[in-house]
TrEMBL record, chains A, B:
PROSITE patterns: PEPTIDASE_M32 (PS52034). It catalyses: Release of a C-terminal amino acid with broad specificity, except for -Pro. Broad specificity carboxypetidase that releases amino acids sequentially from the C-terminus, including neutral, aromatic, polar and basic residues. Signal peptide: none annotated. This is Metal-dependent carboxypeptidase. GO terms for molecular function: carboxypeptidase activity. Pfam families: Peptidase_M32. Keywords: Carboxypeptidase, Hydrolase, Metal-binding, Metalloprotease, Protease.
Length: 495, 495
């Protein structure tokens, strides 16, 4: 047998890493779903050991050599894409010096841990000390990543979650959003003021909700041979493409949130389950980006899930599975899924107000990383923007304002924009789908989603990371990101 | 900080290995309990990759050096015991050359895989070809282990599961057993001939059985902060000491098996949950041996679980949790747990006939490894011994004879004796406990097991691998293995 060439060496290396990530994915899922409390210490230590092994392998000195050599090999276009993604992965995992990685890990652990109590106590003064330490390291990290990649500081952080996206484009996207969203929210709130108050239907046992959720997953063609549904405190989609683990959390007083949460996670899951099998262990075979991933969950949840047709089809399932909801009229279920109400908390926000929360966070984290504002400025700016976008003041209420999210304490900068990019991509994909297959609304109205899934599979799921995001979106829709579709979608749904 | 000395280096090494074993334990548990079918390929590959990493670390060349150096260090007695167990672990994991490990892994995978169909088809002719290949490699393995350890071939294999045990002693133990067991079985069968036929009570839903099982685990002081109960095709006790995962399998027609299975696995679990925390990541902090492990599960299942007192306390729980058993009289429950009936299948055997199955397997595998018999001789010898010990012929019925177990196809030689050693140790421990605390039977009759558990914790669980098996047993009972207690126990229970 010949000595493997550089490209083959790299492929073997990343396939090996994928197997170690598999162990991480399953044991992390177990930690969130199955593990009894007393197992946490040993689990944390085992996962830390695994992280060390993965880090050692990811930073092997031969990798840089192989990456250089592979560039002059004669590669197919798929191999070229694969090499591009291997290099991105390598660049992102080797960029930071070990002492910065360690300092960051300590600072975020401290900040996150203290935050859980400080948030409850509304104690911004104590919290900001830790957050300053985290932000200082984030700025350092961004600078190092910027130097290595040739990108700007914030763009270098974006590259971790949304490769190819840039601050300049986000400024345009959110700048435009800012011109019409607050106004639209106000109009919709006024319109909905006459809606009747929602009735209470008593308790919905978790087991009934679970059976309902499974029935809906079935309808959405979740592949139960390659995945499962469980319960965790914070819903997520984990596991590996051949074994996707989604979770939810049942509230016995209100089934509607968990149910739509399951629809959302099923969107993430179907993307994972339909990634190309032959590339699944390589970076190029993985989901394109956080924003594209979220576009799939939001396609399921927003474009499909909250559509009139889908809620009509959900209605008999709800009545069938939930004893207490057997007399719930369709109109109430629809109202649940279309109510718009400005609120303090991002994770509780509806489809229309959610982007306002993201816009605010984007603007602040961008200015923090660019050192145009300081951590100490956050509460006042938060309050100003909440008033401006949603008409709510967070003065003196930091626990429901700038202390509500775990992202910054955890050192995640550049992550928030993907939520709204996802919503925008989803609207654009839906518009392209309807343009390409004009009979889609009729089919969906009859409960036939096969055309929808076929389009997503062909244009998104099977494409994994073969193309950069812009090219993926252009190939699927004929143009790169165009937020106009999102605006159209919101106006036509809510006005 | 000073450079760590050899003993400290070794400790760090084994602590790291324990973290990797943790990942293996949890993902293997998940594979058996949670994983959907379609996840198996990727899981198998991830586990194989982990095995490679564990093997690489376990065979690092520095280990031999450190082991040598540590022997001349000034060590406490606990450290000396720790060093002894580290050396045993190192010796067992480095003994085989890589090509033999690989050949064995291929041969056993092939044999085991084909066996699943060949057994169903009663196809000894096809099966024996694969088994011959496995056995040939097992003989090679035993020879290499013998050369490296200075033990005899079979003893070197025993050392993997039951360190310190020897063929010579097993010959005595089983030789003696053979003189009285077949006769005793016959007497008990005759005595039970007049017992009434057991009634059918209809179906017992799994969920009710699960709640009953959990109630019994609670009674047996299983620590649910450090463990859980789930379902798998083959019941086992897995996980890690701070997070012990036991499993069962519910048969809706018969709750008694799964229930006593849960009692059995709870015995394994409490041993694991009560290993000394400060040593838990080192070989010396692990369970002493397969035989001692089985002594704890069999203490729970046989000494305690099938005792009159325990079954009396089980009875109201059974009636409370199982709708269909709410009128079941105590006498029937007792009869379920004391019935003796010679049968073909080891895993279905009762307490009294089980050792006959083990005796037979021990004698054959010993002679196979010592090349006194050949694989081709197995069916005839099996039939002879089954007739001699249990009065049953397996002629032409290999699927319920020598093809019933996965152990030999999987290359496990030296493992079977631990089942009966466990039963013997359990009887000896029980006798020592009653001698030390004569009020034990009274307390147990009142449902107070605290004295029992305190004794086990003090003498067995907390001792982990601090002592070799003989010393552990002597310290606990005043003598080394004495099978007379097992005979006494069986006679007093069944005659
Ligand atoms: Zn999502
Ligand atoms: Zn056992």
């Amino acid at each position: 047998m010949n000595k493997p060439n550089a490209y083959q060496q790299l492929s073997q290396h990343f396939q090996q890493l994928a197997k170690l990530s598999h162990l991480n994915a399953i044991t992390s899922w177990d930690q969130a779903t199955m593990m009894p409390d007393g197992g946490n210490q040993a689990r944390a230590e085992a996962l830390a050991e695994l992280a060390v092994i993965i880090h050692e392998k990811s930073t092997q000195p031969q990798l840089e050599e192989w990456l250089e050599q592979a560039k002059s090999q004669n590669l197919t276009s798929v191999q070229q894409a694969s090499l591009r993604e291997m290099e991105r992965s390598w660049r992102n995992s080797t960029a930071l010096p070990a002492d910065l990685v360690k300092a960051k890990s300590l600072a975020t652990a401290r900040c996150e841990h203290a935050w859980r109590e400080q948030r409850k106590a509304n104690n911004w003064q104590a919290f900001q000390v830790n957050l300053q330490a985290v932000m200082q390291l984030a700025i350092e990290e961004a600078q190092i990543r910027a130097d290595k990649s040739g990108l700007s500081r914030y763009d270098a952080m974006l590259d971790l979650y949304e490769p190819g996206m840039q601050m300049q484009r986000l400024d345009l996207v959110f700048g435009e959003l800012q011109t019409w969203l607050p106004q639209l929210i106000q109009e919709v709130v006024d319109k909905q003021a006459s809606w009747p108050k929602l009735k209470q239907y008593g308790n919905f046992p978790s087991e009934q909700q679970k059976q309902l959720g499974l029935a809906v997953m079935q309808k959405l063609q979740f592949d139960f041979k390659h995945g499962r549904l469980d319960v965790s405190a914070h819903p997520f989609c984990g596991g590996v493409p051949s074994d996707v683990r989604i979770t939810t959390r049942y509230e016995e007083e209100d089934f509607t949130r968990s149910l739509m949460g399951i629809v959302h996670e099923t969107g993430h899951a179907r993307y994972e389950q339909n990634l190309p099998l032959d590339l699944v262990d390589l970076p190029v075979g993985q989901a394109r980006s956080m924003g594209i991933h979220e576009s799939q969950s939001l396609f399921f949840e927003m474009q499909l899930g909250r559509s009139q047709a889908f809620v009509e089809q959900l209605h008999p399932l709800v009545k069938q599975h939930l004893t207490q909801a057997k007399n719930m009229p369709l109109s109430e279920l629809q109202q649940h899924y279309l109510s718009v109400k400005p609120g303090y908390i991002r994770v509780d926000a509806d489809e229309l107000t959610y982007p306002a929360h993201i816009m605010l966070r984007y603007q602040l984290e961008r200015d923090l990383i660019n050192q145009e504002i300081k951590v100490a400025d956050i509460p006042e700016l938060w309050d100003q923007k909440m008033q401006q976008y949603l008409g709510l003041s967070t003065k003196g209420n930091d626990k429901n304002g700038c202390m509500q999210d775990v992202h910054w304490p955890a050192g995640l900068i550049g992550y928030f924009p993907s939520y709204s990019l996802g919503a925008m991509y989803a609207a654009q994909f839906h518009a392209a789908l309807v343009k390409a297959k004009p009979d889609t609304p009729d089919a969906v109205a009859k409960g036939d989603y096969s055309g929808v899934f076929a389009w997503l599979k062909q244009h998104i799921w099977s494409q994994a990371s073969l193309y950069e995001t812009d090219e993926l979106v252009e190939r699927a829709t004929g143009e790169s990101l165009n937020p106009a579709y999102f605006q159209q979608h919101l106006r036509s749904r809510y006005l």
